[in-house]
Specification:
Blueprint: E1 7-12, H1 15-25, E2 30-33, E3 37-42, E4 45-51, E5 61-64, E6 67-70, E7 73-78, H2 80-92, E8 97-104, E9 112-118, E10 124-130
Parallel strand pairs: 1-4, 7-10
Antiparallel strand pairs: 2-3, 3-4, 5-6, 8-9, 9-10
């Protein structure tokens, strides 16, 4: 089965700050845009920032492998070499991590590389990678 790109839309308070973060810091190419929204290419997936003065991400978290993982988060599962290059890029940009790049569930089913950080509006992003794609949905 061929996987098609996903689309995620999210509220932001300042489009220029969002444009700078996603385009210049994360390296996402910009697609279409208007006065109230911007499309970004995030690893070949379409994410759209919509201007909204009422955006308020939640700060609830659950403990996963000993770390407080924000319940509301999204991101992309990368290949391991992509993940390492992206983690290195983020470190070089001085991104403050909520959860530093590391391997979790070591030696268990679902072992994965992961990292968490927030965008300027407080949206939590997670990027992860598995040694094998078979681990993504393994029990």
């Amino acid at each position: 089965m061929s996987i098609r790109p996903f689309h995620v839309a999210f509220p932001v308070k300042n489009l220029e700050e969002t444009r700078h973060f996603y385009h210049h810091i994360l390296g996402c190419p910009i697609g279409r845009s208007s006065d109230t929204w911007i499309d970004f290419n995030l690893f070949d997936h379409q994410i759209t920032a919509h201007l909204s003065l009422s955006s308020s991400p939640t700060s609830v978290s659950n403990v996963v492998d000993g770390k407080a993982v924000p319940v509301q988060h999204w991101g992309v599962i990368l290949e391991m070499t992509q993940w390492q290059a992206f983690a290195d890029h983020l470190k070089g940009q001085g991104i403050p991590f909520l959860i530093e790049p590391h391997i979790r569930f070591v030696g268990e089913v679902g072992e994965q590389a992961t990292l968490f950080f927030q965008d300027p509006d407080g949206h939590t992003l997670e990027f992860k990678a598995f040694a094998s794609d078979g681990g993504i949905f393994a029990h």
